[in-house]
Amino acid sequence: MSHFTNILQYAKPYKGYALGHLISNVFYALFGALSFVALIPMLDILFQKDTVVPTVAPVYEGIGSLKDFYKDYLAYQVHIYAQDDPQKALILVVGLIIVLFLLKNIFSYLAYYFMVFLRNGVVRDLRNAVYKKTIELPLSYFSEQRKGDIMARVTTDVATLQYSMLPVLELIAREPLTIIFTIIMMLLISVKLTLFVFIFIPLSGWIISIIGKSLKRKSDRVQSEQGVILSTLEETLTGLRIIKGFNAEGKFNRRFQESSERFFHFSNKLLNRQNLASPTSEFLGILVISILLWYGGQLVLVDQSLDGSSFIAYMGLAYNIMVPAKAISRGFYNIKQGNAAAERIQEIIGAENPLKDKDNAITKTSFDAEIVFKNIYFKYQDDYVLKDFSLTIPKGKKVALVGQSGSGKSTIANLITRFYDVNKGEILIDGINIKDLTTASLRNQLGIVTQDAILFNESIKNNLKLGNDHATDEEVISALKVANAWEFVKDLPQGINTNIGDAGGKLSGGQKQRLSIARAVLKNPPIMVLDEATSALDTESERLVQKALENMMKNRTSIVIAHRLSTIQNADQIIVLNKGEIAEQGRHDELMKKQGVYQKLVDMQSFD
């Protein structure tokens, strides 16, 4: 229930709708109970023709005589209207029943009307909260998760809550109020019979609860397996070219079918357990009604402490109490099922974010002096990727990081952008530890071009405006020209408004990389971080883009992580990394004279 309580917290902004729902349900339950009690005078008219009708208004003598007062008062009003004409009396009573049922259903609609806004609002806010937390969490969180499982939590698990746990909100007020008002009317008709009912209804509820105990576990397995299915599908769509190229369609098909088969079996077990709830509760309800018929018949025929018309109305009320009781038991089933989804959602919402801004974090609006890496140690898991790494980058300088794969080059980019935090040491910008800055203001100072050109299923213009939402079309075109991308963009059917497809699938690798460079150019930050920025370009494009990058990086601080050493020969300083430590540093010609690690790297590559 704790997860259900957490979900209910999202209903707080909708207190007005909740109040409207509650008030409507009060009247719904009241008129629902009265509509059955109104049957008593009609039954008296039909079956008790010799009943003495009061000719004077009855006097209320206390709660103990409320039932008799109610019956006599109705009979008196019928007498005043009908003047001993049974047909008129019947029309009056039937009209009263119609009015009561009409009012009951009007308030039923109003209760559902208010609940629509409450329930859908909670679902919307919950889905938004999960997505917001998803994009706030650090990259390290997702390295431990399947993307498909995250997608399942944001979509399928929220939908599960919408159709399992959240409908219980409708039961919180409606069904208990219906039961309360119905029990009051039942007590007024017969205390003995009502006490008899109280013996069997809890017994029924206990039997139903036994069936529902394993629902949460079965539901959790179903939702987890759905995450595996989505993850397999996402991996298939992402790597379809490789799958086909390696003739691995059969392997992935088997993996998907195995997961689908497990989902099939888990779903069967879950749904069969759910399906057992309805017939079980219905049978128990009929059992209780049957026992009531026997015991109530004794009170009418043997004890004669209850009249026939009251007993028939009582049976209607007993049925009226069984319907909400059944709904409540079904609601508990749904809570058990939804609890698994709520728990999976809470895992994301409640996940700790180690990169969260401090309460007094500084908002930095400019870069004035230098970037300092001071005795940095960092590891992704067990082994340190960087060890005692120290480096100072003055403003306006171009620093290149080179080294073999796994030497820690890209890790520097991950740390300066604060995708990860250092384990030891500190990174300072203008003397301020980046942990003391707001993450947003830190990244506003940075322009990032990654090794993989990450583009979105949007127009070229919208892809470029990601970091500068107010850029004009002229500024967009200017950035494209700097990145040497305008030459192909201008020939596209809709120019900068052309949609480039999922992950830029309509473009070549070199074109995608040039667009990602243009995106960084348009942002126009004081610090550029280029992580293998030219790795996807052919030789001709590389020359053109390299020249554009050099123009862009003039008078700008740049950290260039390069595999192709031809792109960084003009760097102010080259840092050669080896197993997380600085092996050499200096300018290109200085390092070549040393005939050390750098020269070996250069010798492995051919220059034009």
Task: Please sum up the structure shown.
The protein is an alpha/beta fold and 608 residues long. Helix content is 62%, strand content 10%.
**Outline, from the CA principal axes?**
elongated
- Order of the strands making up the biggest sheet: 6-7-8-3-9-10
Give the tally of structural domains: 2
Low-pLDDT ranges: none
In terms of DSSP E residues, the strand content is 5-15%
Folded structure, characterized:
- It holds the Pfam family ABC_membrane.
- This is Antibiotic ABC transporter ATP-binding protein.
- The protein is an alpha/beta fold.
- A 6-stranded mixed β-sheet has the order 6-7-8-3-9-10, sandwiched between helices. It has a 4-stranded antiparallel β-sheet with strand order 2-1-4-5, with helices on one face.
- 62% of the residues lie in helices and 10% in strands.
- It has 2 domains: 2-348, Up-down Bundle (ABC transporter transmembrane region fold); 370-445 and 572-608, Rossmann fold (3-Layer(aba) Sandwich), CATH 3.40.50.300.
- α1 (2-8) packs across α13 and α7 packs across α10 (215-238).
- A hairpin with a 2-residue loop joins β4 and β5.
- The chain is built from 22 helices and 10 strands.
- The radius of gyration is 37 Å and the shape is elongated.
Task: Give a quick set of tags describing it.
4-stranded antiparallel beta sheet, 2 domains, 608 residues, Rossmann fold, 62% helix
